Structures are given as structure tokens and as C-alpha cells.
């Protein structure tokens, strides 16, 4: 079958690879009908995520049709149209039972590397390096889905492919940021980043009752899209002092909840960006935490900051003093999608959550490398490039 | 020019000082309890389910290892512990045997993780097989060696 493979830093190619097979009784094989680029892939492409091997199939946010199931799969059968969570859970270990699916203790068969790096490993993640289990990704014609009863969700009739697709990763990630960030009715919420994840976080905050939601980015087309489809306020950080603006919009308090949806390749204006850029180049700092610093600084006293953006290692100039003295709560996680996906599909079916506008560019698998180039450089207003292997 | 030389000497002197300081630190050969430490996983199942009739679960049972269990606090299931009976290398020797893949603790870690996975999900999850298009590069080979050890390494 055809697949988009990582070949090295900023190098992708389309290859013929063997079809996946059922390896475990609880596996299903899914024929991928739509698979999207995600900001997390940019960190893989940039070489910031360790343990990628040349030839690895990438992609983790996808939708498809079940074509084969192992003998122990009971909730699905061939023909089901399913959206699959990007993060693999077993559904029965303590973290899964507690709803912390990305901390699953049984879905990453190679936990040694991340346990040594972080003192604990994440769940397995599709197409996201051997540190996260080495599972093949979804930018392919077919994919093996482990523990299919727990990770594949039947899409209700009447929900479009292009809407359901983002219930795999972007929408539950954004929802988790607002939910576990503790958004309550009446809150003011600021969101850094207007990519797919930031937009979904902003919408989630509104649906959870936030009174004002302010989203921050630099790209005019992303800001305009967020204002139009999410319906929140937007701020361009290249022309506005974000901290001053947030204070002015909140009676001097600062936002109650700050959600960071930018990640380790954050941009910025001024000396901070130059400083982090140089340190990262010299390998003195692994990740650039520019938006995290700003969120901690802007957050109201006693407020909470949720880090949705992916970070891999160490950062520099982390404002621990601000965090401690302002009494902030800081949290982060890979997404716990399984606990939100059914509800999100429901919201999409009812028209309360819009997602399909994120799919600005649709193309075939052969266009994989071009799609990533557009997505990385934000060319032609690209927010997400979606690959449709069978169209 | 003179300044540059003084600067270089300064750096060199600094380097020597750091090296001396490092040499004066006592590097512990090994923690005393390294060889006898129990490796443990917490299984979200009762003691009876994990060890029915006191039988050690597979694949732990196949190893020459001591095994013990106790109830985990707060309703978290059962703590399952094991440690190799044979001699366990420590200190610098341990580093080498871990790289070679013959540290007996690696097999114990793999067995503990697999026993947990079977007790909780009914089977051991198999990783996807590597695919043919992968080019054998030098960093790739180093990574492959590290990945082969990964199931037996980590924090247990
Ligand atoms: N936690 C999870 O499980 C999870 C899941 C999916 C994605 N992610 C992460 O979320 C992040 C966003 O993903 P995405 O798909 O939306 O990516 P994206 O690249 O499309 O969007 C990131 C946006 O951040 C903006 N940005 C950069 N620097 C900024 C700054 N200083 N202030 C404000 N905005 C800034 C960029 O202009 C861009 O629009 C990535 O780090 C990704 O890895 C995490
Ligand atoms: Zn993602
Ligand atoms: Zn689990």
C-alpha cells in the first residue's frame, strides 16, 4: 500500500509499504478515508521528537472504515465508519479507567526510552516515533488499530467525514485544555495559537460557559477564521502587546484560564525569539517555550495554565517565580481523547461544534510532501492539509 | 592579540579547575542496594486474579526470579514485584551489560510489563513490525539497538 514516510529532518516521501496485519486479537484494520496533518507532525519533521527511524509512516488524526477485526473485537465490525483516537489506550489500566488515557500503561510496547527521559512514559501514539511505541501512522491506505473496542468510535449517520475527522485529535485536545484547565461559567479564557488545536480549545471554552474567550496568533487568515467560525475575540501578537491587551480586556486581572496551543516551535517578536532560537540551534535548549512564558505572566493570580502544545525536553528561563508567587496551577498532557470523543461527535451532530473549516486543503496521499510544505509554511492560508487516499 | 591569549589561558585554566573539581568528586561505584532492589508494577486487578492459587503469572514464571505481591494502597489494585535470583551486575559493569542486553533485570522488566498487560487486557500488545523501506543508517542502527533494549529498560 501507499504511505507517507518520514525520511529524515524535513524530508518526507511517498512509499510502497506492506499492508498492515492483525497482530493482536483486539486489533482492527481500518481503511483510511481521511487523515490530516497536525502541528505535532511539524515537531517530528523538525527533528525535535526523538526516536524516529527513516521510513516511519507518519500521521495520527484520521477517520476510516473498519475492514477486518480480530476475534476479540466486540464493539465493531467490518463496514463501520469510525474516527480513531490519535492516542492508543487499553481501557483497563488504572489511568485509562480514570480517564487519563494518554497515560495508558499497556499501549506503549517500548516505554524504556521515555521512562528514562521523563520518569514515566506516555501511551502509544500512531505515527509518532518509537518513543511512543513505533506504531505506523495514518497517512496510508490502511492502518492497524490496537484495542479497537476502546480506540475506534462509530461516527453517527449525518455527521460528515470532514467534521468527524477532527474528533480524532484537534477537537478532544482543545476540549481537554478547557476542561482540565478548569474553565467555569463566567471565566475569561485566553488561548495562544489559532491552529486547529487552539481554535478547538477556544470553542470548548465557550461551550463550557466562558464569558469571554480571546485567541492569539499572528496569521491574519487564521485570526479571521477563528473570529468567524469559533466566534471569539482575537489578538494579533505582532501588532499588539499581548500582556497589556489582556490586562486591559480583563479589568487588570488577567485571564482566569490560559491555554497554550503553540508548542515547542513557538515564534515571537523581539529579543526573546532570538535568544531561544540561538539556544535551540546550539542545542543548549531543546524547546522554545515563548507562549508558555507569556501565558504564565498574563494569567490572573490564582489562575490556571494548561499546556496543550507539545514539548519534548528542557526549556530555559522558565518563570517558576511567577508561577509560585502568583499561586498558579500549571498542567499539561497529551490528549485523553477517549473520554471526550462521544460527546464531541454529539456536539458536532447538533451543530454546536464546527470543525470542517479547518480542512483548508484536501489532496491525495501522493501530495503528502507538498501538503506538509504548505502546512509548515502556512502557505495559501493552509490550516490543515487533509489526505484522502481513496479519492 | 595579547587579550586573546590571556582569554584563551583563562579558559584553559578554568577548564583545568573544572576537571580537578570533577576528579575530586567521589563517584559512587554503586548504590548499596542496587543488586537487591525489587522491580515493581501496579496491576489494576486483585491479588487472586493475578496469582490464582498463588501461581506466579506467565511469563514471570519462566524466569529465575523471586516474586512477591501485595495489595496496592487506595484501591489501586495489586503491586507485583520481582527481582532476579542470579547475580545482578552493579555500577559500571551494569551499564555495559545493559547495553549488551544481558542484564537479568531487563528480562524481569519485560516479564513484569507483559504479566501486567495480560492481567489487565488479556494479551500482550505487539508493536508494529519495522518496514522494509527503512534505510540502514548509522544513527538508525544505534537507535535500533536502543529500541531493542527499550522493553527491558525504564524506571521499574
Ligand atoms: N496535547 C496533545 O495531545 C496535542 C494534540 C495535538 C496537537 N498538539 C500540539 O498543539 C500545538 C498546536 O497544534 P496545531 O495543529 O494547532 O499547530 P499549528 O502549527 O497549526 O498552530 C500553531 C499556531 O501557533 C501560532 N503561534 C506560534 N507562536 C505563537 C506565539 N508566541 N503566540 C501565539 N501563537 C503563536 C502559530 O502562528 C500557529 O498558528 C502543537 O504543539 C501540537 O504539537 C498537542
Ligand atoms: Zn495531533
Ligand atoms: Zn490503559
UniProtKB/TrEMBL annotation, chain A:
<dbReference type="InterPro" id="IPR013154">
    <property type="entry name" value="ADH-like_N"/>
</dbReference>
<keyword id="KW-0479">Metal-binding</keyword>
<feature type="domain" description="Alcohol dehydrogenase-like N-terminal">
    <location>
        <begin position="25"/>
        <end position="148"/>
    </location>
</feature>
<dbReference type="Pfam" id="PF00107">
    <property type="entry name" value="ADH_zinc_N"/>
</dbReference>
<dbReference type="InterPro" id="IPR036291">
    <property type="entry name" value="NAD(P)-bd_dom_sf"/>
</dbReference>
<keyword id="KW-0862">Zinc</keyword>
<dbReference type="InterPro" id="IPR011032">
    <property type="entry name" value="GroES-like_sf"/>
</dbReference>
<dbReference type="Pfam" id="PF08240">
    <property type="entry name" value="ADH_N"/>
</dbReference>
<feature type="domain" description="Alcohol dehydrogenase-like C-terminal">
    <location>
        <begin position="196"/>
        <end position="264"/>
    </location>
</feature>
<dbReference type="InterPro" id="IPR013149">
    <property type="entry name" value="ADH-like_C"/>
</dbReference>
<protein>
    <submittedName>
        <fullName>Glutathione-dependent formaldehyde dehydrogenase</fullName>
    </submittedName>
</protein>
From TrEMBL, chain B:
<protein>
    <submittedName>
        <fullName>Uncharacterized protein</fullName>
    </submittedName>
</protein>
Amino acid at each position: 500500500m501507499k504511505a507517507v514516510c518520514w525520511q529524515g529532518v524535513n524530508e518526507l516521501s511517498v512509499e510502497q509499504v506492506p499492508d498492515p496485519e492483525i497482530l493482536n486479537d483486539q486489533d482492527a484494520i481500518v481503511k483510511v478515508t481521511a487523515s490530516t496533518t497536525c502541528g505535532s507532525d511539524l515537531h517530528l519533521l523538525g527533528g525535535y521528537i526523538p526516536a524516529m527511524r527513516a521510513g516511519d509512516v507518519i500521521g495520527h488524526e484520521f477517520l476510516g472504515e473498519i475492514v477486518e477485526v480480530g476475534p476479540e473485537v466486540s464493539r465493531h465490525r467490518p463496514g463501520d465508519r469510525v474516527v480513531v483516537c490519535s492516542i492508543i489506550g487499553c481501557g483497563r489500566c488504572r489511568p485509562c479507567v480514570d480517564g487519563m488515557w494518554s497515560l495508558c500503561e499497556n499501549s506503549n510496547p517500548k516505554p524504556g526510552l521515555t521512562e528514562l527521559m521523563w520518569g514515566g512514559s506516555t501511551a502509544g501514539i500512531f505515527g509518532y516515533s518509537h518513543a511512543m511505541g513505533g506504531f505506523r501512522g495514518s497517512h496510508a491506505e490502511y492502518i492497524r488499530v490496537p484495542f479497537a473496542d476502546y480506540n475506534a468510535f462509530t461516527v453517527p449517520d449525518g455527521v460528515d467525514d470532514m467534521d468527524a475527522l477532527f474528533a480524532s485529535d484537534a477537537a478532544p485536545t482543545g476540549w481537554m485544555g478547557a476542561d482540565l484547565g478548569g474553565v467555569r461559567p463566567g471565566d475569561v479564557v485566553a488561548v495562544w495559537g489559532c491552529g486547529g488545536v487552539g481554535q478547538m480549545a477556544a470553542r470548548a471554552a465557550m461551550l463550557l460557559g466562558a464569558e469571554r474567550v480571546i485567541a492569539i496568533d499572528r496569521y491574519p487568515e487564521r485570526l479571521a477564521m477563528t473570529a468567524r467560525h469559533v466566534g471569539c475575540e482575537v489578538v494579533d501578537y505582532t501588532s499588539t502587546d499581548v500582556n497589556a491587551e489582556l490586562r486591559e480586556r480583563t479589568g487588570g486581572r488577567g485571564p482566569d484560564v490560559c491555554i497554550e496551543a503553540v508548542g515547542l516551535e513557538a515564534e515571537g517578536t523581539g529579543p526573546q525569539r532570538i535568544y531561544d532560537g540561538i539556544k535551540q540551534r546550539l542545542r543548549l535548549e531543546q524547546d522554545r517555550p515563548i507562549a508558555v512564558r507569556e501565558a504564565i505572566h498574563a494569567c490572573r493570580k490564582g489562575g490556571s495554565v494548561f499546556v496543550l502544545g507539545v514539548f519534548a525536553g528542557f526549556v530555559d528561563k522558565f518563570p517558576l517565580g511567577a508561577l509560585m508567587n502568583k499561586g498558579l496551577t500549571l498542567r499539561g498532557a497529551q490528549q485523553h481523547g477517549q473520554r471526550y470523543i462521544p460527546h464531541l461527535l454529539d456536539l458536532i451532530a447538533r451543530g454546536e461544534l464546527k470543525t470542517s473549516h479547518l480542512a483548508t486543503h484536501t489532496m491525495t496521499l501522493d501530495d503528502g510532501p507538498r501538503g506538509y510544505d504548505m502546512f509548515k509554511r502556512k502557505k495559501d492560508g493552509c490550516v490543515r492539509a487533509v489526505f484522502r487516499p481513496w479519492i | 592579540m595579547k587579550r586573546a591569549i590571556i582569554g584563551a589561558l583563562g579558559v584553559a585554566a578554568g577548564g583545568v579547575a573544572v576537571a580537578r573539581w570533577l576528579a575530586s568528586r567521589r563517584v559512587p561505584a554503586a548504590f548499596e542496594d542496587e543488586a537487591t532492589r525489587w522491580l515493581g508494577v501496579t496491576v489494576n486487578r486483585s491479588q487472586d486474579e493475578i496469582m490464582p492459587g498463588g501461581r506466579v503469572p506467565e511469563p514471570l514464571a519462566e524466569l529465575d526470579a523471586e516474586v512477591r505481591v501485595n495489595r496496592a494502597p487506595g484501591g489501586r489494585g495489586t503491586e507485583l514485584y520481582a527481582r532476579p535470583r542470579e547475580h545482578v551486575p552493579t555500577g559500571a559493569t551494569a551499564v555495559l551489560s545493559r547495553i549488551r542486553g544481558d542484564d537479568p533485570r531487563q528480562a524481569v522488566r519485560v516479564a513484569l510489563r507483559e504479566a501486567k498487560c495480560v492481567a489487565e487486557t488479556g494479551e500482550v500488545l505487539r508493536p508494529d513490525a519495522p518496514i522494509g523501506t527503512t534505510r540502514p543508517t548509522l544513527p538508525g542502527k544505534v537507535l535500533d539497538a536502543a529500541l531493542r533494549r527499550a522493553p527491558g529498560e525504564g524506571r521499574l
